[in-house]
UniProtKB/TrEMBL annotation:
The active site is at residue 60. The lineage of its organism: Bacteria, Pseudomonadati, Pseudomonadota, Betaproteobacteria, Burkholderiales. It comes from the Bacteria. Transmembrane segments: none annotated. It comes from Ramlibacter cellulosilyticus. Signal peptide: none annotated. Pathway: Bacterial outer membrane biogenesis; LPS core biosynthesis. It catalyses: lipid IVA (E. coli) + CMP-3-deoxy-beta-D-manno-octulosonate = alpha-Kdo-(2->6)-lipid IVA (E. coli) + CMP + H(+). It is found in: Cell membrane. InterPro entries: Glycos_transf_N, Glycos_transf_N_sf, Kdotransferase. This is 3-deoxy-D-manno-octulosonic acid transferase.
Length: 415
């Protein structure tokens, strides 16, 4: 009874979804494109049999890119259908497409929209990246015999508690999945509690990403031209920047680099920095020769995190100083950039603990302590270099999830 009620609520909320898309589209025009796909209305012919991969947002799409690369090495003629939920995810996903592939929005989780999606694309199988499990989607794929798996799967204690409160919806949804491949043993245990069929613990796909060599070279060149050590606030989230700006006011001998997590906030964050009395220079206005001088550099570009990590001597981890669970620290480690993180890293709990044990990261109680720790570290060349080398070793030691996951995906497709 609960899923029909859930479906009725979603159907009734569709006008609100349209209104939300219009609002989001003011800052991000991508939300105004192909709006009817959100409701399962797709146009033009579609060849059946593609492997469908759903990557809701930017982070999941980057993880999907690693998996797609491994899949194509194993099966070069594989055709992919990519679906997304956010404009940044869809824009990033366009880079992965080859001839014969397709891309679309995943529809709102009503039975009618999901049926239209499955009727139109007729995928051979579906892969959901990391966390995105919807009750109607899972149930209808199961009913139609479309194998649906959760890859690079993670589930925080907070998300488990939420799922328990909605157990009559969540347990059937997780139970309908063909397979789950978890990042960690703890993720596997929590997912199993919800009735998921955990078929393996493969590690985190993001360890298999190779930083762009050209970005690394350019970033290190930029770091070498800076008269001051560079400290980066990586993937900052709303509410954290104000604390950061207060904390750095006493440290004008450091070059600060601020990279917001969400591109729709680039202008807002630049304005916050200026209002706090700092001069601002934005990446979008630079040439590739050197950043323009300013108190705070703003990294307002997509796809250049390796460039920013290579420019920085140390990085503060966004999302970890507010109760947001932290952002991915693996890329920083792979780029040889030591990480200072706040107390809230539950989204990447095991990676954070392993980085701490490896000496690639340190944990602090709050933003003020984080800024002090970062400044101390850039002033201690030996300690900073040791942490950078520890990060590179840490990242290299945990690779292999991509090959393991690709093998399992292809085996599932052939079932």
């Amino acid at each position: 009874m609960i899923r029909p009620l859930y479906s009725l609520v979603l159907i009734g909320a569709q006008p609100l979804l349209r209104r939300k898309l219009r609002r989001r589209g003011v800052a991000e025009p991508g939300y105004l494109e192909h709006v009817e796909e959100r409701f399962g209305r797709y146009h033009g012919p579609s060849e059946p049999g593609r492997l469908w991969i759903h990557a809701v947002s930017l982070g999941e799409t980057r993880a999907a890119a690693i998996l797609v690369d491994a899949l194509r090495r194993a099966q070069p003629d594989l055709r992919i259908l990519l679906t997304h939920g956010t404009a940044t995810g869809r824009a990033e996903g366009q880079r992965l497409l080859r001839e014969g592939d397709a891309q679309a929005w995943l529809p709102w989780d009503t039975p009618q929209a999901v049926r239209r999606f499955l009727d139109h694309f007729r995928p051979s199988a579906g892969i959901l990246m990391e966390t995105e499990v919807w009750p109607n989607l899972a149930a209808l794929c199961h009913a139609r015999g479309v194998p649906l798996a959760l890859a690079n799967a993670r589930l925080s204690p907070k998300s488990l508690a939420q799922a328990r409160r909605l157990a009559r919806l969540s347990r059937p949804a997780y139970g309908a999945l063909h397979a789950v491949w978890a990042q960690t043993e703890e993720d596997a245990r929590r997912l199993s509690e919800l009735g998921a069929r955990v078929e393996g613990v493969f590690g985190n796909l993001k360890f298999d990403a190779s930083p762009d060599a050209g970005q690394l070279r350019l970033g290190r060149d930029w770091r070498g031209t800076s008269p001051r050590p560079v400290v980066m606030f990586a993937s900052s989230r709303e509410g954290e920047e104000a604390e950061f700006l207060r904390a750095i006011a006493a440290h004008r001998d450091v070059q600060w680099l601020l990279v917001p997590r969400h591109p729709q906030r680039f202008d807002e964050v630049a304005a916050l920095v200026a209002q706090a009395g700092f001069s601002v220079s934005r990446r979008s206005a630079w040439t590739n020769e050197a950043p323009a001088p300013a108190d705070v550099w703003i990294g307002d570009s997509l796809g250049e995190m390796a460039l920013y990590y290579a420019t920085a001597d140390v990085a503060l981890l966004g999302g970890s100083f507010a109760r947001l669970g932290g952002q991915n620290l693996i890329e920083a480690a792979a780029c040889g950039c030591p990480v200072v993180m706040g107390p809230h890293t539950f989204n990447f709990g095991e990676a954070a603990e392993l980085a701490l044990q490896a000496g690639a990261a340190m944990r602090v109680a709050d933003m003020e302590a984080g800024v002090r720790a970062a400044v101390d570290l850039v002033r201690d060349d030996a300690a900073r270099q040791a942490a950078a080398e520890a990060g590179e070793r840490f990242a290299a030691a945990h690779r292999g999830a991509a090959v393991r996951t690709a093998k399992a995906v292809l085996a599932m497709v052939r079932v």
